[in-house]
């Protein structure tokens, strides 16, 4: 047997794949170009944007979003959405706070109870999705609304107001504050500890995605779930695992929310779920799944951080922020659509 | 192809008078076939003839309701596709079970990825995956310079070949191919048939499902014809010519009737039939 028929065909095709096109095929590339453009733009129009202290502020804004954007990106690569992610952060913070205040003297007990409950909610999303086979949009929209209601309802029921009781004087608060919400000073610049969490999570997500079996399965269940099942990929376990990842990040974010201050507003978090998705999409995740990267989500979050703070440094009306975000999202999606077309050119 | 001891040891897979019912519908009745190592058994039939049902029985998706299903002489009832895989029966479906956006090497190992390292450092053996993919495809005669390209950028024929190479690599003894040439052009079909023959020469038993008698007769050793769920013929290569196979496949007397009906219409292409090559399945 010889491949004399196949080989020339391949050669023809390889000629078309110029190095530039190959580079453009990277999921992150569009977002990196976008980030450079946004950076230059604000470096020119906002004088204080280039100061070191501003950098710490921008990174902080990016990290709070980026911690959630990384697992949300993985979930999107796996072909699903989680609209409940935003309020789940608040739920996680409320559980920690209220459980600690009502039941124990040590905040760490509440923190761990919160971890369990948050993971259970994530598992519920994944379980409902894989059991009912309804679109994740519907399932998590349901969880989103239920959690929104529960957050407000429970808090009012227990505290009498829409915010929780202060837990700042409780045992373990200082150590929890150090882990989730402390500030590190490097030189004269202040960096929030969330930046470290962010970097760690993005690194972990990238490792999982590119170098583990589970990562291979994420791409597969998002790209073609039936094909994945046919070759023995555990589709259900993979999807539930992805929701657990989002829940874990929501727990970290929730603890940050709580220990940054010592009270939590129960109405917070609504709308954030879309911001996570936007960061992931700007970072190159296809809305239909099967393609994207965790690093891209970090770049997406960084663009978000630069834009939100850059507008402040430029002393503009913050209303413009949403416009920028929208325009960025459209551009990113157009680029992604082009990438997908290219990748599936002969499919 | 040289004779190996396996070939004389009886069929790898044998269906003996197998029937399958969906409720009160007879999907398949009294079908017998044999798959030998180093041979290609072709299953021919029109749409609705029961080819898919037959595949699903061999692949372990459905159980049979009557008759005997033997794997290497042992009577069996497969529980699920995984069970079939474990017994060395690999099925390549028409949709190929590949993920278009994923690189070729990730697709090749999907579901059975090799890992290296222990504990939290357990990771994909990327180097092995890439190299194996390259060499295995090369063995089938596909020279991929870049195993990183999304599998969706390969042609239909090449994707079919990757799927076949994957089945061969993972130790399949019996390869079931569901209409591998149905959606392909003439040239691409030729390429795929060459890989089917390569799999046969590697000692596998192949079940080739098709509705194209020309493709079947080129490579087949045995032919089973299905018509409305019953076996309308079973031949070996020696006792049937291409013309006879084509005639039987195209419907035999029904076809003569049809050509009579169509007589006054000046159709350039007489049912001979080349329809399957145009990608209508």
Automatic annotation (TrEMBL), chain A:
Keywords: Cell inner membrane, Cell membrane, Membrane, Sugar transport, Transmembrane, Transmembrane helix, Transport. Part of the binding-protein-dependent transport system for D-xylose. Probably responsible for the translocation of the substrate across the membrane. Its main location: membrane. It is found in: Cell membrane. It is a multi-pass membrane protein. The keyword Transferase does not apply. Pfam families: BPD_transp_2 (PF02653). This is Xylose transport system permease protein XylH. It comes from Streptomyces globisporus. The chain crosses the membrane at residues 29-46, 58-76, 107-127, 134-154, 191-210, 242-264, 276-304, 320-339. The keyword Transmembrane helix applies.
